[in-house]
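Posting for a labmate who doesn't have an account.
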Amino acid sequence: MMETVAISPYLVIILAGFLPSEIWRWLAVFLAKDIREDAEILVFVRAVASALLAGVVAKLLIAPSGGLASIPAFWRGGAVVAGVMGFLAFRRSVFAGVLVGEAVLVIVGLMG
C-alpha cells in the first residue's frame, strides 16, 4: 500500500526558508548590475566573505565538534594545507579548495 506524503513541511521550508532569502538575492542581482568589479564595496564584501570562511576553518581546526572531533588534529591541519594547495592549483577557486580539504577529511575519516 502506498503512503501519502505530507506536503506541509515542504511548504513551510519553501515559504519560511527559501523565498525570504531568494528575494534578497534577486534584489542584489538587480542592484549590482551597474557596479564595477573593482568597486570598493565589492572589495569589502570579498574581504568579509574571506574572513568568515577563515573563521569557520579555524573553528573547525581548533575546536571541532561531532564526527570531526574524532579525526586527529594532524589530519585536520593536513586537510587545511591540502585545501590551500587545491585553492592555488585550481586558479584560486574557493570551491576547489573546500572540496579538496573536505575530500581529505572524508578519506581520513573512512580509514580510521
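Reply:
Got it, the C-alpha cells are right above this. The radius of gyration is 20 Å.
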